[in-house]
Amino acid sequence: MASKQLKEFTFEEVAKHNKEGDLWIIVDSRVYDLSKFVNLHPGGAAVLLVETIAGRDATDAFFGLHRQEVLYRPQYARLQIGTIKGQEPLIKPLATDALSQVPYAEPSWLTPGFSSPYFKESHHRFQKAMRKFVNEVVLPDAIRCEDNGKRISQEVVNKLGEMNIIGMRLGPGKHLKGKTLLGGVITPEEFDHFHELIINAEIGRCGTRGYIDGILAGNVIGLPPILNFGSPELQAKIVPDVLAGKKFICLAISEAFAGSDVSGMQTYAYKDGNEWVISGTKKWITNGVFADYFTVGCKTDDGYTVILVPRSDELSTKPIKTAYSAAAGTAFVTLDKVRVPLSNTLGKEGKGMSVILSNFNHERWMILTISLSTHRLIVEECLKWSQQRRAFGKPLNSQAVIRAKLAQMIARVESAQSWLENVTHQMNNMSYTEQSDKLAGTIAFLKQYVTSTGRATAEDAAQLFGGRSVTQSGMGKLVENFHRTSPYDAILGGAEDALRKMPKNARL
Ligand code: HEM
Fold first, then answer.
1. Considering the domain 108-215 in this protein, what is its CATH number?
2. Local structure of 254: helix, strand or coil
3. Ligand 1 contacts CB of residue 26 (under 6 A)
4. Quick one: pLDDT band at residue 357, thresholds 50, 70, 90?
5. Superfamily of domain 249-350
6. Is the CB of 65 inside a 6 Å radius of any atom of ligand 1?
7. 467 CB less than 6 Å from ligand 1?
8. Which of 1, 18, 36, 41 to mutate to test the pocket of ligand 1 (most atoms within 8 A of CB)?
9. What are the φ and ψ backbone dihedral angles of 446, each rounded to 5 degrees?
10. CB 433 within 8 A of CB 358
11. CB 460 within 8 A of CB 382
12. What is the pLDDT of residues 98-110, one digit of tens each?
């Protein structure tokens, strides 16, 4: 489009081109010559040749049926031959680092005129850079892989490593010392859980749930036990390669025999000389298909022990077909007398349950942060759609019942966001051990709130989008993905009920 000279036309000039073989239309003051395209149009030729469309301003009809991105695809952008004299297109693609102008599409800390006790200047800087990175580097890969089921491309992984995003996703800590974060936009000393929240939120905006797990969620949950409980030698051997994106790790706890009730697990490890010998199976292991290392929960003679197991001939993985994209790399893992040194033990032998439980908090916080961000994206989709979609001669949002649904959706994301920011603030002011003691219940409840409200919005959004919410391309594609996959956010990361610390003497 940029390379060719665009002419200016009047409405009268366009109107003369209104038949088969000579067909022009106007969309948002842009003039398109569809003469040759008409027979290739995925929506059929007939719809373009009707009297109200051929040679006319078809803006409303177009936006009732297509996402604006259709106009920017090179094969369609080149159909534009000019513009309407004296008019400027109103609808333009946003810059890759831009904030949405739709009310409630961004959390209040990103809304002009609003302030926040939690987010400082470094968070704003970081958010802008992260949005640009996700839109330019991650999103095209996410859309491709979500569709074809392939794992995240190594080029994207390399960039995540270069920017130290893989490391930042583990939260603040010594693993970030001396690193250049996101090209130097903030220092490791500035980095806190709110910056980490921003990374998750920006990833959540891709709206591609399988790929969102595929963008190395396995590292986020599989590496902390090494960082927190592994020997310095083990850390030196594993951590740098994983943070650089050269190797992948995953967390292998759940089994067909044991999910949230991890104590039911059957994978068994016994000692033989200075080695563990491990046999058993693991199920639903995110990123397991392509992982090099497995952080494995095992039953041992004195309780449960977490052991790091590298991929070998005795450890095999096969993909599990799930309802979300295979880009997540969900695996069934078989360990058949795998031998690893005793020095691969994470934490104390027999004390694996505390390693597993303390890991859950951060995992659940990550899942809910991403889920809430996709939830907000869906609210934005609904707000836009209910404005542009006309039914019975009026926009959808002119109906009270639709406005009531939108109000409920907004209330859900806003209340969850406020709670999340409070919890994140607590995380910033507690050690890892304190977090697992004091925040386990709160994070479980918050996750329950985020996922159940997310389901309610998914249902409302599907009603609003109607048939479009069941197709994986076109207008409702983000709603379809969220409606299909948001139940997993409640399931992944374990059960969501954890009322703890009730004083024994509490009475009415
Ligand atoms: C620049 C002009 C146009 C282009 C490049 C274009 C392109 C497309 C594309 C790529 C699709 C496939 C679905 C998607 O990717 O969203 C589609 C579907 C469709 N188009 Fe167009 N289109 C144009 C104008 C129009 C107009 C003016 C109408 C007006 C009636 C129309 C009616 C339809 C219909 C009914 C569908 C099927 C929608 C569905 O299955 O939900 N198109 N078009």
1. 1.10.540
2. coil
3. no
4. confident
5. Butyryl-CoA Dehydrogenase, subunit A, domain 2 (2.40.110.10)
6. yes
7. no
8. 41
9. -65, -40
10. yes
11. yes
12. 999 999 999 999 9
